[in-house]
User: Fold this.
Amino acid sequence: MEQEKKTALEIAGLLLQINAIKLNSKTPFTWASGLRSPIYCDNRQILSYPAVRREVSEGLAILVKKHFPEAEVIAGVATGAIAHGILVAERLDLPFVYVRSSPKGHGMGNQVEGKIMPGKKTVVIEDLISTAKSSMAAVNALREEGFNVLGMAAIFSYQMEAAEKNLKKHHCSAFTLSNYQMLLEKATLENIIDNGELNLLKSWRKDPENWA
Assistant:
């Protein structure tokens, strides 16, 4: 457990360092869903930093090997987790597919891109878990194609109650390299936020819909 916490703090520090995670309690960000938030996470930034990219892909591969040692396929969720998923699949020497948010409107109309492998034990790679709604849509799309989804490995989780409920509802376990709690701990240790900002950030996670 100590090693997991150390890794979570290190990943949180790297995400802050490269500005993949931005904190601003005074001028909140607006997510695509319309939710107002003091935090914004864009893990696509990781791809532009080779050292961080290696650290993250290695960490995700370790999560997969530890929690899903029987994995036969890696699946990335479009678009943010496609590259991360490919890197993990390459490290583990496993086949890779990716899942669109909806079926393609032309050609074959695919939602799952790559070879369809019914029955194959599959681990989904996500860059970020917020409510887990889009993640579960990807999991269900894979299951509809016959893939045996074992669970999910992600870079970061906001640790929202909605995510926990969605994961449980769809019988999908998820493991992450870092999370909101570890992020706040790292930001406090590095003096990136003060106690007032810390309390505001904590209050957001308790009730994100009404926080603003």
